[in-house]
Amino acid sequence: MRFDHSSLRSVSMYLSYLDSSSRLNRNMPPGVSPLYRVLRLFIVLLLTACSAPTVTSPPTFVSTSPIGIAATVTPTQAPAVVTLLPEESPPDGAGQFTTDFSRHTVSYSKILSGGPPKDGIPAIDMPQFVSVADADTWLESQEPVVLVQIGADVRAYPIQILMWHEIVNDTVGSVPVVVTFCPLCNTAIVFDRRLEARVLDFGTTGRLRYSNLIMYDRQTESWWQQATGGAIVGEFAGAQLHFLPASIIAWGEFVGTYPNSKVLSRETGFDRDYGRNPYTGYDDVNQPPFLYTGPTTPDVLPATARVLTVDLGGEVVAYPYEVLAAANAVNDMVASQPIVVLWKPGMASALDAATVAGGRDVGAAAAYSRVLDGRTLTFIRDGDRLVDSETSSTWDVLGRAIDGPLTGAQLEPIVAINHFWFSWAAFKPETRIYQP
Q1: Cα–Cα nearest to 140, from 247, 258, 254
Q2: Would you state the CATH architecture of domain 306-433?
Q3: How many other β-carbons are positioned within 10 Å of the β-carbon of residue 67?
Q4: pTM
């Protein structure tokens, strides 16, 4: 049976109406609202596949220049030895791919269809960019964007676009990168697209593992787990993409800091309702995650609690947003490395309200090395300011000293990724949860 886009949208709107009615009507049978919610989210995934185009090594500290990541990033090398699992029947939808399904590092029983087929959620392969001034006419101050900076090349990728495409193949500062976003896990992750002598480009498989996006590279059609950056199926099974630092910040913060930079354009070649949130209410901590079948989530945090995660030198830490909001600055040691996690209010949740801009304020967080010119700094909240105890300089959430003796200094960013707790815990059960 096939559905066209307008039919699915009508069904989705009807289910939204029924879902709203069930929440308002206290006489509805128990469980009805969650049922409609699941049906609506499933149709959302199908809707992203229905609109035709209108035109055709573990994370470590990254060497940076004062204005961002150095433009010389070493390509990742594939591992010499890979531990593969015994052969088993390929997962549903494997017939759409030409890769070697005898090579896999995860059980196929853990891979589920998310609804759309291969490339049903279309990646952006020829991204166009506009000025900050142009983008400011359709982005609101509190909207989340993904900040990517390599050398002097600074770009913003609005979540309102990424949630409809999930993958952007781009080149930033002469480095081939792939900017990815999985709405079901709230993960915005950027990787170097180079593996040995090859430059890869990526698309969506339409498959999920632990609710997380599974990508594929178009060169070998190997499958890659977005949350880990590891290849799990095919020729590259066992290979690892190199993570690059990237932060989700409020558009207003980006505008004030990088007024002359580039912003991903909504002229993508596809007909999508950019600005609308098709996952309304998804990050409600009282609701279970959609399409999640995996390890039981430790109940130390709600399943959809927001955490900023750091995986450094073999130590894995999750920083709950609730803790960050109370402190604004968290000083920690991870694998003997002094780091700081900074948080600032003013950024909307993209997955809360009917529009991306209309979500509740969840704030933005990012992580940095606390070592500056050989000295370890300690950060504290001083009223509405973030300051270091050593010089009383004032810092912003982007790790820049904006007032005081260190004005103009830049902290070294580290790879720190936003997740929902269920997603991170499924892939990293050994995680230490930061407690003040």
Answers
A1: 254
A2: 3-layer Sandwich (2.102)
A3: 14
A4: 0.86
